[in-house]
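Morning. Coffee machine broken again, so started the prediction first thing and wrote up yesterday's gels while waiting. Chain of 87 residues, entered below exactly as on the submission form.
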Amino acid sequence: MNTERYFIISNSDGDTTVNFFTKEDLLKALTPDKNEVTYYGANLKFLDLDNLSICPDTNYWGTDLLIIKGKIVQLKVKETIKTIDIE
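Came back before lunch.
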């Protein structure tokens, strides 16, 4: 999966959740419906990035959300062959 995604990190009752979206799906999730509610609730709050370095523990974020744009990468095993040499 090398496609760029938007990751939302949130915390609810001590449980950290990471969801990822395409740009279109993210906009749908953050746009209020006719009841003025989004996928993440009625009152969206985003994490103040100045507080992130002070408080990286999501248990202290309250209902604030953090959005990160990036790509999912996977490690690939690379075979290494050892050789022995002697004079």
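Residues 4-71 form one domain. Going to sketch it on the whiteboard this afternoon.
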